[in-house]
């Protein structure tokens, strides 16, 4: 077994990180039993205005895990835009320990740049008053050794706009000004009804809250199935930030959410247009390289999301179907996005 896999089954002494909470200590439920996600704490934007985070190559480190959809969005954007050369990337293991996200995949179990074993260490150092969870994605200022942003709602938009001077040649315009209002509107829908909608279903602690979330998810998937019958991407022939946001949920749906979160009316493979759209995006190198199905399966089905006392990892599903041909070129013509 790899170093990170061994650590999944080792009992460890719980460590205190000041006020930084463990997953179990954060109450993200309403009185009705509905899941209410904690707010982001570090939300200072990147930019050149006073008080904003300076846009500077080599200064920041993105901490992610391929388990997390919010974190995977950042890596897809990095690969599409060419930002991997100016912002370093650190990876935590997909199964979160009771001490938080752990750098068990690195040599000696320590991030080679930040010198920490658990992500909450740097949260406690940055903001001793912080009482929430240490989350991914996290952006750390390597110069100061402190967390500067964990605002997954807006991070990809910063990479797409104020970080444009560092984009590679012919990088796609994922957040073009002429579509920005429409993208923002659709992204709000995608977050509340799809991306976070599956979590609302999976983490509900009342039948009513679960069924409301379940219905919300599948009502919106039916709507997306119709929308994607009319264009190759969510905005016609233009790949946008919205496609990244939808894709990360689609990639996790059949392998994890369908079972772990009880969103089991349909699989994504049951939707002709959504499924072919998902395979089309997966055929783009940036999407494929950022998608680790094994990490997704381990994180949701062995980790704190699962009720799996014997840590039995399901053998399926068959993932080779993601490499099968899709019909998007036949329906809408050849794509210009080959990266």
The shape, in one word, is globular
The spatial strand order of the largest sheet comes to: 2-1-3-4
SS-based structural class? mainly alpha
How would you spell out the order of helices and strands?
Answer: HEHEHEEHHHHHHHHH
Radius of gyration equals: 20 Å
Number of helices, counting only DSSP H or I runs of 4 residues or more:
12
The averaged pLDDT comes out at: 92
Question: Mind explaining what this structure looks like?
Answer:
It is a single chain. The protein is mostly helical. It is built from 12 helices and 4 strands; from the N terminus they run αβαβαββααααααααα. β1 (60-64), α2 and β2 (88-91) form a beta-alpha-beta unit. The longest helix has 21 residues, at 207-227. It is globular, with a radius of gyration of 20 Å.
Secondary structure elements and pairings:
Layout lengths: L2 H5 L52 E5 L4 H13 L6 E4 L28 H7 L11 E4 L4 E4 L5 H6 L19 H16 L1 H6 L4 H21 L13 H20 L11 H11 L2 H5 L3 H9 L26 H5 L7
Parallel strand pairs: 1-2
Antiparallel strand pairs: 1-3, 3-4
Helix pairs in contact: 2-8, 5-8, 8-9, 8-11
List keywords for this structure.
339 residues, mainly alpha, 4-stranded mixed beta sheet, 12 helices, disordered N terminus
What's a concise summary of this model?
With 339 residues, the protein is mainly α. Helices cover 37% and strands 5% of the residues. The protein contains twelve helices and four strands, in the order αβαβαββααααααααα.
């Amino acid at each position: 077994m790899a170093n990170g896999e061994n650590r999944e089954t080792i009992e460890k002494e719980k460590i205190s990180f000041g006020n930084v909470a463990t997953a179990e200590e954060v109450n993200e439920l309403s009185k009705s039993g509905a899941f209410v996600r904690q707010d982001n704490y570090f939300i200072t934007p990147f930019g050149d205005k006073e008080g904003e985070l300076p846009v500077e190559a080599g200064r920041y480190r993105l901490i992610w895990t391929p388990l997390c959809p919010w974190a995977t969005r950042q890596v897809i954007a990095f690969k599409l835009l060419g930002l991997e050369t100016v912002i370093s990337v650190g990876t935590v293991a997909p199964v979160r320990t009771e001490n938080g996200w752990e750098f068990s995949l690195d040599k000696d179990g320590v991030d080679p740049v930040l010198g920490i074993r658990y992500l909450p260490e740097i949260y406690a150092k940055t903001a001793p008053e912080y009482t929430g969870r240490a989350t991914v994605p996290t952006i750390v200022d390597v110069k100061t050794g402190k967390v500067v942003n964990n605002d997954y709602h807006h991070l990809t938009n910063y990479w797409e706009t104020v970080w444009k001077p560092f984009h590679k040649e012919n990088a796609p315009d994922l957040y073009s000004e002429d579509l920005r209002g429409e993208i923002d509107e659709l992204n709000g829908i995608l977050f509340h009804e799809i991306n976070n909608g599956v979590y609302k279903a999976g983490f509900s602690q009342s039948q009513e809250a679960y069924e409301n979330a379940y219905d919300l998810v599948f009502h919106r998937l039916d709507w997306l199935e119709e929308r994607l019958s009319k264009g190759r991407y969510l905005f016609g022939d233009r790949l946008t930030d919205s496609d990244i946001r939808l894709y990360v949920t689609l990639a996790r749906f059949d392998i994890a959410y369908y079972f772990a979160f009880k969103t089991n009316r349909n699989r994504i493979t049951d939707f002709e247009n959504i499924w072919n759209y998902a395979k089309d995006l997966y055929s783009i190198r940036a999407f494929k390289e950022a998608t680790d199905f094994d990490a997704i399966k381990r994180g949701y089905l062995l980790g704190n999301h699962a009720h799996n006392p014997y840590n039995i990892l399901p053998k399926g599903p068959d993932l080779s179907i993601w490499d099968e041909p899709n019909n998007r070129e036949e329906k809408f013509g050849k794509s210009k996005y080959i990266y």
